[in-house]
Structure formats: C-alpha cells, structure tokens
Specification:
Elements (H helix, E strand, L loop, with lengths): L7 H10 L6 H12 L13 E2 L1 H11 L10 H15 L7 E2 H12 L5
Helix pairs in contact: 3-4
Length: 113
C-alpha cells in the first residue's frame, strides 16, 4: 500500500463539488479511507479505481447491513448495484475517487463527503 498525494487541482475540484463545505483535510481523509486496502503503489489519483465488489465492501462499512431494505443479501446486492451505477458516471464499470465524492454528495444531499 502506498500513499498518493492529491494535487492542488484535485483538491480544488473536489472542494468545488462540495460547494466549498469540505476542507482540504476532510478531502484528504476521505481519500485515505477510499484507498484503504487498495494497491495504490506508483499510481496517480485518477488511476485508483474500485470495482463493484470493492464498492460493496465499502458500502458494508457505511450502511447498516441489517436494515430491512438490505436483507436478504439479494436485496443488498440490488441496492448496491443501483448505487454503483449512479456513482459510475462514465459507465466504465469502475469508480474513481472523484466519482465517489460526487456520488456521495448526491446521496447525502447538502451534507459533506
């Protein structure tokens, strides 16, 4: 596992997408959490992407997996598939950090990352 620095341009873009409600440290923390458990050695930020299975694992850490809408597992997979498609703006079957932040903003409405 490596540590990828976010460029000033990346941080500026992500602040803009969050209506400047997120600080640089908020964005860096979110990126660190996004890249946790991923092989990022030698990669640029835009090259770090997650597939559906990795996305599902991240969702399991965020959502109450015992919620009625996510039980049984088939329901959870349907919900996660819908979310994945919504986050995957370029429809390439992978989600990068920018897509993740934008998708999170849509899901959360006016809240932060």
């Amino acid at each position: 596992m490596g540590n990828i620095p976010l460029s000033a341009e990346d941080i500026s873009f992500l602040k803009e997408k969050s209506n400047k409600k997120n600080s640089t440290s908020d964005i860096k923390k979110a990126f660190k959490e996004f890249t946790e458990d991923l092989d990022v050695e030698g990669k640029k930020m835009e090259e770090v992407r997650i597939d559906f299975n990795q996305f599902s694992e991240k969702c399991d850490t965020v959502f109450n997996v015992n919620a009625d809408i996510l039980v049984p597992v088939d329901n959870k997979n349907i919900v996660y598939r819908h979310l994945f498609r919504a986050f995957d703006q370029d429809q390439d079957g992978m989600i990068d950090f920018k897509e993740f932040v934008i998708g999170s903003r849509r899901r959360q409405g006016t809240q932060g990352i």
